[in-house]
Model the fold of this input.
Amino acid sequence: MKRILLPTAFLLLCASCGVEPGEPAAVAAAVVSDTLAAVDSIGILMGDSDYTFGAIADFAPLAGGGVAVLDRIAERVSLFDGEGVFVRSFGRHGEAPGEFQWPASLCVLPSGAILVLEGASGKVNVFDSTGAFLSSWIIEGMGIYPMEVEAFDDSSFVAYDFSMDMDEDGLSTLFTLWRYHAFTGEVLSRYVTWEAPASASTDFTGAFLLFATDGAGRVYLSRAASDQWMVEVFEAAEAPVDTLLCFPGLARIAVESDSQHVPGVPRISYMYQDSEQGNMASGTTNLPEFFPLVAGLEIGPGGSLWALRGGPDARDWDEISQDGEPVGIHHMALGDTSSVILLEASASGGIYAFDATSEDYHRLYRLEP
Done:
């Protein structure tokens, strides 16, 4: 079933519409607009080591309003309650069970299990809700880079990964969005597989996507290459069960330069064979010609879908009900046009954000309307 959502019920945020960010334009009375402001922060410049971060790699809200924070420099996970008070930490550098080598991503299952994925090795470390080590296993692939991991249900998660493979034709790049059993590593669903030769001229746009999960067996996916504001809905099966289609006539905004940050599009390094010199060279995934119409996806408080409107200053989240109806617009009042803001929300937890381009020290912000 395809749902067509009428554009008059949303806030239009594009250069041609003449509407300031956060200002409603022809918004239906049922759609509520508000501002997400920082009401608290976790992290200090110096002092108590429980509250200092070397570099925040990832974070995930906990049931009840708390948050788990993965520190890439300290190579540990710290848990905080809903008031921002430190509860406990676990993990350290090393190769023994419960230790990390370049931890990159974090995921918390509804059951309370905490997963930490390591970059390069593709190792998945599984802990219980107290931080006790349970098991570990390896995602197959060379140079695994987990760009996003989200809980699917109590025993499985969905990961958007980049890796490289070697065959008789040379190196190839591989992007996957697969669902894994959290405790065994079994591949349960293959939602997206995109592969191409490792080449400086390869167009990676078709591989870029964003996704969110509700922790109860649903996956929401938006492709950066789509020329429509479209979100595909998956369950355990590998074919979409529904499609949310909004703003069929909305034009995308052009990217002005190759060095400009494009919200919703990852930039990762890769290796390829230089055809002229005959040796190995390195490159960076190319940027799309246009900003994606959707620059971020989250499941917000109450279980509704939040979609970040794409553009050079992505700060406005459209909220959509589980029935596909527009119900809210949330303007994120954090950072400026040059900031890269990462936001994580959950149906049962709080809303947290991180300024990845902060000029001083790393800290996490708790947001409320």
Q: What stands out?
A: Confidence is low (pLDDT under 50) at residues 1-29. DSSP finds no helices and 27 strands in the chain. The CA atoms of residues 275 and 283 lie 14 Å apart. The radius of gyration is 20 Å.
